[in-house]
Amino acid sequence: MQIGTFKTMLMAGAALALCASPPATAGFQAQSYDQPAQPLGDALRALARSSGQSIVAPTELVAGKQAPALKGDFSPEAALAQLLAGSGLIARRVGDALVIQRVGAESAQDAQGAGEGAGDERIVVTGTRIRGRAPAGASVITIDRSAITQSGYATTQQILQALPQNFGGGPNETTSITGRGNAEANATSGSAVNLRGLGPSSTLVLLDGERVAMAGISGRFVDISLIPTSVIERIEVLADGASALYGSDAVAGVVNIVPRKNFKGLELSGRAGLSNGFGEAQLSGLLGVGGSRAHLVIGYEYYRRSALATADRPFFSEDLRRYGLGDYRSAASIPGTILAADGSAYAIPAGQNGTALTAAQLRPGPGATSDVWAGADALPSQQRHALYAAARFAPSDGLEFYAQGLFARRTYTKRERAGWNTVYATVPVTNPFYVDPIGTGEPVTVVYDFRKEVGIERTHGSSRGLSGTGGLRWSSGPWQVDFHMSYGEQDEFTYYGNLVNSARLDAALADTNPATALNLFGAGTANNPATIAYLRGSDSFSNHFAVFTQQLRADGPLFDLGAGAVRLAVGAEHRRERYFDNGERDDVFNLQPVTYPRFLDAVRQVVAGYAELSVPLSAPGGRGPGIGALDVSAAIRGEHYNDFGDTLNPKLGLSWSPAALVRLRGAFGTSFRAPSFQDLRQDAATKSYFAYPIPDPASPTGTTNALILIGNKPGMGPERATSWTAGVDFRPMAQRGLRAQLTYFNIRYRDRIANPGAALMTFFINRSVYAPIITDNPDPAVVAAYFASPYYTHYNSLTPADVTAVIDAQKQNLAEQRQQGLDFDVGYRTPLLGGQGEVGVRGTWLLGYTQKFTSSSPAANLVGTIGNPTDLRLRGWLQFETGRFSTALFANYINGYTNDSKLVARPVGSWTTLDLQLGYRLGAFRVALSATNLLDTDPPLTPYGLTTTTIGFDLENASPLGRVFGLQVTRQW
Fold first, then answer.
1. pLDDT per position as a tens digit, 635-681
2. CA–CA gap between residue 198 and residue 200 (Å, rounded)
3. Which domains, and CATH codes, for the chain?
4. What is the pLDDT of residues 21-31, one digit of tens each?
């Protein structure tokens, strides 16, 4: 393997730089070492050559120091910890490199001679645009290759869902029925990141620092399910507002997925997973070739998972009597129920086919109900192909061309819960099988379940993503200029099949021929198969999002203050986004299939400029005022949007290390999120009116019949936020001993764009919160006009006279959300039994999370309530690693909370799951056996009311997967 080295860097002396383009093993795999005791500089050179790990160390730090003998099997990090033990030095990972620093050094600047001449774009941390320096005042969570490997997770979304700062609400495979956090926009079963539970649109997801195309209807989240785990070097998470650097969407934070673009060698891997009810398979390959002037990486990954049926997870049901949680079935059954002209209900008897039914045979009262989840899938089957490539070419010193790209295509299929196929059908008196329970001679309504005849509703579709970046870097001394262009697109297609066509249903019921007319008065045994085939409809939808960006960046030192160089980063960007969608074949509402014209075609232009300044005011060793290491950073970004205007966002950060092992930090900034194309949309695609009985504790019947208005309020503007953090870090002498971080965060998020309709079943339960959008005793003429609107949908038999309230649940800018809490990360690492052992815990404790619906509304508590983040979430670990063997045990904890989705609130228990991985290295092979949710612990059971259905668990805070065994074999050359 060819080993490259950094050039010698100068500032107050020569700096020793030891670097190799890291292979797959860099930073996380173990190998054998047998080095004698020797000068520390020589020992570090030998370690870099043997491991391929980039190690950067200033000569002034290692001069005159001795390293102990190194003998045995170690990962590069563990080997480095042995060499640095007792030296007063520490190794920190900055980008792909391990940087040697004095204990208490704030960032990589000491290791790089204040970063001057570093000329290595890899040493950049999320949260800053300045090379070689960590963002002052911020704490960046890094999930490195080692953590990815040891997690036992197969997909990127599983890795990020385990992060305590991430909330499972919003677009994910199971959550589309919630209607919360843009979950309804997830047309192709994708997966999003939702930091702090503030919404996936408030988390900016980057691929190697660049924006990618958005997924979902109108482009409202980044689909991380398209990113293969095998090509990820690390994931950096900044859980803090960062619009001053990155622009829109970085309100809750930034997730930067960094690929293995410097990999050398060949790696092949295969994985098989098995659980009760489904299986999965994963194959991947990664190839990296080249030297210091040119390098090429190509990677491919295939992933497949079968569907998970609701029958294999009984809590995915409306009938929860087996758990003592009640029976919430309300959908039509077969035989069905007749609703007479006066609204009274009569059950159709079983054991007859409806051809000779009389009114005398009917039983007063509603008939049987059915479970909408029966025969459906809890999770769809998924299949993904992904191809990654990266190349760089340096024709001369100081000039480099680079490019990288990711292409992925994911397909899915799913049996859906009953929706279109459980109907309220109006039967005219001319129908040959018409029965009138009360003899009025007027049409009757039959509540009927078509699943026996038409079949289970099904969907299938695909999501295709493409991201590419190409550019050049030019270095002149310590300054670097970067110009590049990025392009990304996301194409999605969804097909809905086995649906009852409402127009053909009406036509079949109006048919007077007994041989072909539709009979809804039996058990579905007498209907002509041709009639049923005639009813079967379908629908499809496709959407496209594209983003094209040009960026010019420059950074370098301005002057020296004695404590180090003041560094500046500046940049200008132009971004063009386009979204369009099509209803290609609507066969649900019409007698004949109709190809609709494009529903929405929107373009957005964004021009932005930013500047960031990093100022070291003091440093250890006598430079500066002698108060330890003190760094300040300031950033500002201005943006112009052609569709809603301008925005300007600053950020300030401060880091101070008054003592060698302690760092105090704080940051303040503003952020914003631009309205999505869907938020600004004003057409038929966003409007829906319907009447529904909503739970109401103040009503004598327990419900109030309300008219619900769904759509977009005109004139929506951007969301804006102010956030600040304060934290303390305790850092050990070397890569061993105790480390601890504690961060307080406070976010004030105003003008939130939210969909009140997601809380449909709690409008009257929490009437004080939603009072501004509730109109009691509405004008009958207004109600009648809504019923007559083409946007009105008849979900039931309610009439205008039945409605006693109107609820304006249109999407709109809410007044305010406030959130505050603590992030913490504590770990202890020590040599153990000839290897390295580590124990630790990372978590988030929400101290408060409130929302005001309007400025005059009371503040409603969200934390610890269903559909929102819990107040405490933890992920702990116990790890042990020797040369050949490694084991990792993880504990995931979600605290209990309150289910207020029903009339009577009830507690939800806490949930603890264990993940285990055992790894063994045999030569160039590594074999890993993993078990996620080792004890197969079911999620806490609770009746969760979701719009018009109920299930037995909280799908936003828990997963239905259960225990998954995995076996992975990796071979490296």
1. 999 999 998 889 999 999 999 988 878 899 999 999 999 888 878 87
2. 7
3. 9-123 (3.55.50.30), 143-261+273-311+380-416+460-498+539-680+717-753+814-972 (2.40.170.20)
4. 333 333 334 56
